[in-house]
Design goal:
This protein is an alpha/beta fold. The chain has helices at 14-28, 45-48, 52-69, 85-98, 111-119, 129-138, 163-171, 192-210, 237-253, 262-273, and strands at residues 3-7, 33-37, 75-79, 102-108, 152-156, 219-220, 229-230. The strands form two sheets. It has a five-stranded parallel β-sheet, sandwiched between helices. Strands 6-7 form a two-stranded antiparallel ribbon. Strand 6 and strand 7 form a beta hairpin. Helix 8 (192-210) runs antiparallel to helix 9. The two termini are 39 Å apart.
């Protein structure tokens, strides 16, 4: 279940290289290849890359689609800009958690050449010049000295894609060892997940009900919790669902022995998260 991460400025030839690698893998192995791209998750590039919030959501969609497709046999190629080093680090943490090798392919095309290729596209597929220039300015090139950018294959215009070396990197290298923070620990009891889901949902429901009569600045009593929940502002249901999902994800990795403590731990988490 290796992951291949493409990166490069807009119109640098990434999709062409993806097709070359896909064809090579499918012709030399029996592994299926799945491509995750802006198009596959429905990203409108000129709208998304003009708005930082939409762009953040788009990166989350790409990461989620990538995670879902990673299996023991599938090779997943992430065909997107992937121009932020922090985002490439997130992908590295993902492959550490899933215990699979990965590599990065940087399509290092000169901006004037990429700009010309952009202009030669169908008008509906072009980046606007403003968006193109902005993405070029914000691009953070990969560095093989960083473990999340290694192994790194830098491909320039006219270079032949080293498909064999790339396959050696993703099929014959050991996966990076997991960190303690990414390694899922064994659950402390058979009904732990059930209790975690039930308790956190009860806290959310209690808070939503209490907000009907409470005002910002109130302390809300949550049954089963020693601490009270400070209501700094009215918290929406989507915001609570997001905090609940994050807490559940964290707690799965760091389970507690006594589930009766979960309510108070969740209240403490919310007090720190809801600002």
């Amino acid at each position: 279940m290796p992951l291949v991460v493409l990166c490069g400025i807009p119109c640098s030839g990434k999709s062409k290289r993806v097709e070359e690698l896909k064809k090579h893998v499918e012709s030399t192995t029996d592994r299926p290849v799945y491509i995750v791209s802006d198009e596959s998750v429905g990203i409108d590039k000129n709208a998304v890359y003009a708005d930082s919030r939409q762009e953040k959501d788009a990166r989350a969609k790409l990461k989620s689609a990538t995670e879902k497709k990673l299996t023991k046999e599938t090779v997943v190629i992430l065909d997107s800009l992937n121009y932020i080093k922090g985002y490439r680090y997130e992908l590295f943490c993902l492959i550490k958690l899933l215990q699979t090798p990965h590599c990065v392919i940087h399509c290092d095309t000169n901006p004037p050449v990429a700009s010309q290729w952009n202009q030669e596209r169908e008008s509906s597929e072009q980046y606007t010049q403003e968006i193109f220039d902005g993405l070029v300015m914000r691009f953070e090139p990969p560095d093989s000295r960083h473990r999340w950018d290694s192994p790194l294959f830098t491909i320039q215009t006219g270079d032949e894609l080293p498909c064999k070396d790339i396959c050696d990197a993703i099929f014959h290298r050991k996966a990076p060892p997991p960190n303690a923070s990414t390694q899922t620990q064994p659950l402390s009891s058979t009904n732990f997940l059930h209790e975690l889901d039930k308790i956190t949902q009860e806290v959310v429901n209690t808070l939503l009900d209490a907000q009907k009569t409470a005002v910002p600045g109130d302390f809300i009593h949550i049954p089963g919790a020693g601490d009270k929940l400070y209501l700094s502002h009215v918290v929406t249901a989507p915001e609570l669902r997001r905090h609940r999902r994050q807490f559940i994800t964290y707690t799965k990795m760091h389970p507690v022995d006594d589930t009766s403590k979960l309510t108070n731990i969740f209240v403490q988490y919310l007090n720190n998260s809801i600002k």
